[in-house]
Design goal:
This protein is an alpha/beta fold. The protein has two domains: about 80 residues, Uridine Diphospho-n-acetylenolpyruvylglucosamine Reductase, domain 2; about 50 residues, no CATH class. It contains six helices and six strands. The strands form two sheets. A four-stranded mixed β-sheet has the order 1-2-4-3, with helices on one face. Strands 5-6 form a two-stranded antiparallel sheet. The longest helix is centred in the middle third of the chain and has 14 residues. It starts with a helix and ends in a 9-residue tail after the last helix.
């Protein structure tokens, strides 16, 4: 059995068969600077992410967490890239504190969904300084490929 097939089998035991992909097309979707991972994993929870990272550390595998993959080409390309974590299913608001004006979201939460989520819209309705248009503008600026920081 090849080492890649053995790795896929071990990863399937960790997160489930339908959560591991090693097809050429899925690997190319997650390529960074022309370098594709050996496998793409789609965790269902933060606990699964922790298990995957622990496994990867034990096996000395390099891991990259990926969301929508719109910014994979920014920054220095990785020297090694063994596993891609598709974080798109981790997309919930974990904590919202309107008194502190803070929100914590899962790693796969797109900014566009956050901008349209109920807590922000309800808060914006009570506080004109946080109107929904400002959040849309932040999302637009962040989602553009410019390196300019958002200004308010």
């Amino acid at each position: 059995m090849s080492s890649v097939a053995n790795l896929s089998t071990r990863l399937e035991k960790l997160v489930g068969r339908n959560r591991v992909s090693a097809t050429e097309s899925s690997l190319q979707e997650f390529a960074i600077a022309g370098r594709a991972p050996m496998a793409v994993l789609k965790p269902r929870s933060a606990e699964e992410v922790a298990e995957i990272v622990s496994f990867a550390a034990t096996e000395k595998l390099a891991v990259a967490a990926c969301g929508s993959r719109s910014k994979l080409e920014l920054g220095m390309p990785p020297q090694r890239y063994d596993l891609a974590l598709d974080m798109t299913e981790l997309n919930q608001i974990a904590h919202y504190d309107p008194g502190d004006l803070t929100v914590s979201v899962d790693a796969g939460m797109p900014l566009s969904e956050l901008a349209n989520s109920c807590p922000w819209r309800c808060h914006a309705a009570r506080h004109p300084l946080l109107e929904a248009q400002s959040l849309r503008e932040l999302t637009r600026r962040f989602d553009s490929n410019t390196a300019r920081p958002a200004t308010f």
